[in-house]
Protein backbone atom coordinates (compact mmCIF):
# COMPACT_ATOMS: atom_id res chain seq x y z
CA UNK A 1 0.00 0.00 0.00
CA UNK A 2 1.45 3.33 -1.06
CA UNK A 3 1.62 6.43 1.14
CA UNK A 4 2.12 4.44 4.35
CA UNK A 5 4.82 6.93 5.32
CA UNK A 6 3.11 10.04 3.98
CA UNK A 7 4.39 13.10 5.81
CA UNK A 8 7.07 11.29 7.82
CA UNK A 9 10.58 12.67 7.51
CA UNK A 10 13.10 9.81 7.27
CA UNK A 11 16.86 10.38 7.50
CA UNK A 12 18.98 7.98 5.47
CA UNK A 13 22.75 7.92 5.40
CA UNK A 14 23.81 7.37 1.81
CA UNK A 15 26.42 4.73 1.19
CA UNK A 16 25.99 1.77 -1.18
CA UNK A 17 22.40 0.89 -1.99
CA UNK A 18 20.65 3.93 -0.56
CA UNK A 19 19.57 5.28 -3.95
CA UNK A 20 17.21 2.31 -4.16
CA UNK A 21 16.25 2.73 -0.49
CA UNK A 22 15.43 6.41 -1.07
CA UNK A 23 13.23 5.50 -4.03
CA UNK A 24 11.34 2.86 -2.04
CA UNK A 25 10.75 5.28 0.84
CA UNK A 26 9.60 8.01 -1.53
CA UNK A 27 7.13 5.58 -3.13
CA UNK A 28 5.60 5.18 0.32
CA UNK A 29 5.15 8.94 0.64
CA UNK A 30 8.10 9.63 2.95
CA UNK A 31 9.95 12.94 2.99
CA UNK A 32 13.47 11.55 2.59
CA UNK A 33 16.34 13.52 4.09
CA UNK A 34 19.48 12.24 2.36
CA UNK A 35 22.89 12.58 3.97
CA UNK A 36 25.91 11.44 1.92
CA UNK A 37 28.33 9.71 4.31
CA UNK A 38 31.24 8.91 2.04
CA UNK A 39 31.90 7.92 -1.51
CA UNK A 40 33.18 4.59 -2.78
CA UNK A 41 36.13 4.43 -5.17
CA UNK A 42 37.81 1.62 -7.04
CA UNK A 43 41.02 0.37 -5.44
CA UNK A 44 43.65 3.07 -6.11
CA UNK A 45 46.08 0.46 -7.44
CA UNK A 46 44.27 -1.88 -9.85
CA UNK A 47 47.22 -4.25 -10.27
CA UNK A 48 46.56 -6.47 -7.19
CA UNK A 49 42.87 -6.73 -8.11
CA UNK A 50 43.67 -7.66 -11.71
CA UNK A 51 46.23 -10.22 -10.52
CA UNK A 52 43.68 -11.81 -8.18
CA UNK A 53 41.17 -12.03 -11.03
CA UNK A 54 43.72 -13.68 -13.33
CA UNK A 55 44.71 -16.18 -10.60
CA UNK A 56 41.06 -17.10 -10.14
CA UNK A 57 40.72 -17.74 -13.88
CA UNK A 58 43.97 -19.67 -14.34
CA UNK A 59 43.25 -21.89 -11.35
CA UNK A 60 39.65 -21.55 -10.11
CA UNK A 61 39.19 -21.39 -6.36
CA UNK A 62 37.68 -24.34 -4.52
CA UNK A 63 35.70 -21.87 -2.43
CA UNK A 64 34.80 -18.19 -2.76
CA UNK A 65 33.64 -16.01 0.15
CA UNK A 66 31.97 -12.71 -0.74
CA UNK A 67 31.60 -10.25 2.14
CA UNK A 68 29.73 -7.53 0.20
CA UNK A 69 27.69 -7.18 -2.95
CA UNK A 70 29.61 -4.01 -3.75
CA UNK A 71 32.82 -6.03 -3.79
CA UNK A 72 31.63 -8.40 -6.51
CA UNK A 73 30.23 -5.53 -8.57
CA UNK A 74 33.57 -3.72 -8.37
CA UNK A 75 35.37 -6.91 -9.40
CA UNK A 76 33.03 -7.25 -12.38
CA UNK A 77 33.83 -3.68 -13.39
CA UNK A 78 37.53 -4.57 -13.54
CA UNK A 79 36.80 -7.89 -15.27
CA UNK A 80 34.89 -6.11 -18.03
CA UNK A 81 37.59 -3.48 -18.42
CA UNK A 82 40.32 -6.09 -18.96
CA UNK A 83 38.07 -8.22 -21.20
CA UNK A 84 37.79 -11.49 -19.25
CA UNK A 85 34.15 -11.47 -18.12
CA UNK A 86 33.20 -14.83 -19.62
CA UNK A 87 36.29 -16.55 -18.23
CA UNK A 88 35.87 -15.02 -14.77
CA UNK A 89 32.19 -15.91 -14.43
CA UNK A 90 32.99 -19.45 -15.59
CA UNK A 91 35.71 -19.74 -12.94
CA UNK A 92 33.34 -18.55 -10.21
CA UNK A 93 30.83 -21.14 -11.37
CA UNK A 94 33.32 -23.89 -10.46
CA UNK A 95 33.76 -22.69 -6.86
CA UNK A 96 31.54 -23.19 -3.85
CA UNK A 97 30.22 -19.71 -3.17
CA UNK A 98 29.50 -18.33 0.30
CA UNK A 99 27.73 -15.03 0.95
CA UNK A 100 27.80 -12.83 4.02
CA UNK A 101 24.11 -12.01 4.13
CA UNK A 102 21.74 -11.36 1.23
CA UNK A 103 23.57 -8.59 -0.66
CA UNK A 104 26.43 -10.70 -2.11
CA UNK A 105 23.84 -13.28 -3.17
CA UNK A 106 21.96 -10.59 -5.07
CA UNK A 107 25.19 -9.54 -6.81
CA UNK A 108 25.90 -13.18 -7.75
CA UNK A 109 22.44 -13.55 -9.29
CA UNK A 110 23.14 -10.47 -11.44
CA UNK A 111 25.79 -12.56 -13.24
CA UNK A 112 23.72 -15.75 -13.35
CA UNK A 113 25.18 -17.49 -10.29
CA UNK A 114 23.86 -18.51 -6.89
CA UNK A 115 25.53 -18.82 -3.48
CA UNK A 116 25.69 -22.34 -2.11
CA UNK A 117 25.42 -21.01 1.45
CA UNK A 118 24.46 -17.69 3.02
CA UNK A 119 25.26 -16.75 6.60
CA UNK A 120 22.41 -16.70 9.08
CA UNK A 121 24.02 -13.58 10.54
CA UNK A 122 25.46 -11.12 7.98
CA UNK A 123 28.68 -10.58 9.95
CA UNK A 124 32.29 -11.75 9.70
CA UNK A 125 31.66 -13.84 12.80
CA UNK A 126 28.73 -15.42 11.01
CA UNK A 127 31.00 -16.26 8.07
CA UNK A 128 33.58 -17.89 10.36
CA UNK A 129 30.85 -19.88 12.10
CA UNK A 130 29.40 -21.07 8.78
CA UNK A 131 32.80 -22.12 7.40
CA UNK A 132 33.77 -23.86 10.65
CA UNK A 133 31.22 -26.58 9.86
CA UNK A 134 32.95 -27.40 6.55
CA UNK A 135 36.11 -29.28 5.60
CA UNK A 136 38.43 -26.69 4.07
CA UNK A 137 41.68 -28.61 4.49
CA UNK A 138 43.84 -28.19 1.39
CA UNK A 139 41.34 -25.86 -0.31
CA UNK A 140 42.20 -22.64 -2.15
CA UNK A 141 39.75 -20.06 -0.90
CA UNK A 142 39.18 -16.66 -2.47
CA UNK A 143 38.09 -14.01 0.04
CA UNK A 144 36.70 -10.63 -1.01
CA UNK A 145 37.28 -8.03 1.68
CA UNK A 146 35.78 -4.60 2.34
CA UNK A 147 37.49 -1.40 3.63
CA UNK A 148 37.87 -0.01 7.15
CA UNK A 149 37.75 -3.39 8.84
CA UNK A 150 40.45 -5.59 10.39
CA UNK A 151 39.81 -8.98 8.79
CA UNK A 152 42.72 -10.76 10.47
CA UNK A 153 40.52 -12.82 12.82
CA UNK A 154 38.41 -14.17 9.96
CA UNK A 155 41.47 -14.88 7.79
CA UNK A 156 43.17 -16.62 10.70
CA UNK A 157 40.13 -18.77 11.41
CA UNK A 158 40.00 -19.93 7.78
CA UNK A 159 43.73 -20.66 7.67
CA UNK A 160 43.40 -22.65 10.90
CA UNK A 161 41.06 -25.00 9.01
CA UNK A 162 43.88 -25.78 6.58
CA UNK A 163 42.81 -23.54 3.70
CA UNK A 164 45.06 -21.33 1.58
CA UNK A 165 43.44 -17.87 1.61
CA UNK A 166 43.77 -15.48 -1.34
CA UNK A 167 42.29 -12.06 -0.50
CA UNK A 168 41.20 -9.15 -2.68
CA UNK A 169 40.10 -5.63 -1.70
CA UNK A 170 38.45 -4.13 -4.80
CA UNK A 171 37.31 -0.77 -3.43
CA UNK A 172 37.99 1.91 -0.85
CA UNK A 173 36.03 4.58 1.02
CA UNK A 174 36.58 8.34 0.85
CA UNK A 175 36.66 9.00 4.60
CA UNK A 176 36.69 12.78 4.20
CA UNK A 177 33.48 13.13 2.23
CA UNK A 178 30.44 15.02 3.38
CA UNK A 179 31.36 16.01 6.96
CA UNK A 180 29.25 19.14 6.62
CA UNK A 181 26.21 17.12 5.59
CA UNK A 182 26.69 14.78 8.54
CA UNK A 183 26.80 17.68 11.03
CA UNK A 184 23.63 19.13 9.46
CA UNK A 185 21.88 15.77 9.85
CA UNK A 186 22.93 15.60 13.50
CA UNK A 187 21.43 19.06 14.04
CA UNK A 188 18.16 18.08 12.35
CA UNK A 189 17.79 15.13 14.75
CA UNK A 190 18.73 17.24 17.78
CA UNK A 191 16.11 19.83 16.80
CA UNK A 192 13.46 17.10 16.65
CA UNK A 193 12.84 17.50 12.94
CA UNK A 194 13.32 13.84 11.96
CA UNK A 195 10.68 11.13 12.45
CA UNK A 196 13.19 8.27 12.15
CA UNK A 197 16.75 7.49 11.09
CA UNK A 198 17.09 4.33 9.00
CA UNK A 199 20.40 2.46 9.15
CA UNK A 200 21.32 -0.21 6.61
CA UNK A 201 24.98 -0.94 7.39
CA UNK A 202 27.26 -0.66 10.38
CA UNK A 203 29.71 1.65 8.59
CA UNK A 204 27.08 4.40 8.80
CA UNK A 205 27.08 4.27 12.60
CA UNK A 206 30.86 4.31 12.81
CA UNK A 207 31.04 7.26 10.43
CA UNK A 208 28.41 9.24 12.36
CA UNK A 209 30.29 8.80 15.63
CA UNK A 210 33.70 9.40 14.01
CA UNK A 211 32.62 12.75 12.56
CA UNK A 212 30.76 13.80 15.73
CA UNK A 213 33.85 13.13 17.85
CA UNK A 214 36.15 14.92 15.41
CA UNK A 215 33.86 17.96 15.41
CA UNK A 216 33.28 17.91 19.18
CA UNK A 217 29.55 17.25 18.96
CA UNK A 218 29.16 13.63 20.08
CA UNK A 219 26.87 14.73 22.93
CA UNK A 220 24.65 16.51 20.40
CA UNK A 221 24.57 13.36 18.25
CA UNK A 222 23.50 11.26 21.21
CA UNK A 223 20.90 13.89 22.13
CA UNK A 224 19.53 13.70 18.61
CA UNK A 225 19.47 9.89 18.59
CA UNK A 226 17.75 9.88 22.00
CA UNK A 227 14.79 11.75 20.54
CA UNK A 228 14.77 10.07 17.10
CA UNK A 229 13.48 6.51 16.52
CA UNK A 230 16.30 4.33 15.17
CA UNK A 231 15.44 1.76 12.49
CA UNK A 232 17.93 -1.07 11.88
CA UNK A 233 17.93 -3.38 8.87
CA UNK A 234 19.40 -6.35 10.75
CA UNK A 235 21.61 -7.85 13.47
CA UNK A 236 24.97 -6.48 12.31
CA UNK A 237 23.64 -2.92 12.49
CA UNK A 238 21.87 -3.51 15.82
CA UNK A 239 24.98 -5.08 17.34
CA UNK A 240 27.04 -2.08 16.24
CA UNK A 241 24.47 0.29 17.76
CA UNK A 242 24.57 -1.65 21.02
CA UNK A 243 28.39 -1.52 21.10
CA UNK A 244 28.12 2.28 21.19
CA UNK A 245 25.42 2.30 23.87
CA UNK A 246 22.65 2.98 21.36
CA UNK A 247 19.34 1.19 20.92
CA UNK A 248 17.26 -0.24 18.09
CA UNK A 249 13.63 0.94 18.02
CA UNK A 250 12.45 -0.51 14.71
CA UNK A 251 13.48 -3.86 13.24
CA UNK A 252 12.18 -5.98 10.33
CA UNK A 253 9.68 -8.66 11.24
CA UNK A 254 10.47 -12.38 10.96
CA UNK A 255 14.21 -11.83 10.49
CA UNK A 256 13.66 -10.49 6.96
CA UNK A 257 16.78 -8.32 6.71
CA UNK A 258 15.96 -6.38 3.58
CA UNK A 259 14.88 -2.84 2.74
CA UNK A 260 11.20 -3.52 2.03
CA UNK A 261 10.56 -5.36 5.34
CA UNK A 262 12.40 -2.54 7.14
CA UNK A 263 10.12 0.02 5.47
CA UNK A 264 7.07 -2.03 6.49
CA UNK A 265 8.30 -2.11 10.08
CA UNK A 266 8.86 1.66 10.00
CA UNK A 267 5.37 2.27 8.65
CA UNK A 268 3.82 0.08 11.36
CA UNK A 269 5.72 1.76 14.20
CA UNK A 270 5.67 5.38 13.00
CA UNK A 271 1.99 5.12 12.09
CA UNK A 272 1.13 4.99 15.79
CA UNK A 273 1.78 8.74 15.99
CA UNK A 274 1.37 11.60 13.52
CA UNK A 275 4.45 12.97 11.77
CA UNK A 276 6.39 15.43 13.91
CA UNK A 277 5.77 18.25 11.44
CA UNK A 278 2.01 17.70 11.84
CA UNK A 279 2.30 17.40 15.60
CA UNK A 280 4.23 20.69 15.77
CA UNK A 281 1.71 22.37 13.50
TrEMBL record:
Protein name as catalogued: Uroporphyrinogen-III synthase
The segment(s) forming the Tetrapyrrole biosynthesis uroporphyrinogen III synthase domain are 20-254
**Transmembrane region(s):** none
Q: Give any GO molecular function from the UniProt entry.
A: uroporphyrinogen-III synthase activity
- Which terms under GO biological process does the entry name? uroporphyrinogen III biosynthetic process
Alphabetical list of CDD domains matching this protein: HemD
User: What's the superkingdom here?
Assistant: Bacteria
Name the Pfam families on file: HEM4 (PF02602)
Which InterPro entries does the annotation name?
4pyrrol_syn_uPrphyn_synt_sf, 4pyrrol_synth_uPrphyn_synth, UROS/Hem4
Q: Which organism is it from?
A: Bradyrhizobium archetypum
Amino acid sequence: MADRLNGYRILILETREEAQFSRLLTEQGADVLQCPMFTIHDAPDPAPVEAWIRRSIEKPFDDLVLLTGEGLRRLMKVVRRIGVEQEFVASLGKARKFARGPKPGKALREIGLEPQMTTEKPTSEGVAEMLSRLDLNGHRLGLQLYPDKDHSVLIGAIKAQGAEVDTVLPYTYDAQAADTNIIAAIDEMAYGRVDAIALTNLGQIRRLIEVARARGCEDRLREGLDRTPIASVGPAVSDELKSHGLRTDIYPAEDAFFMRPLISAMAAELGKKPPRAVARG
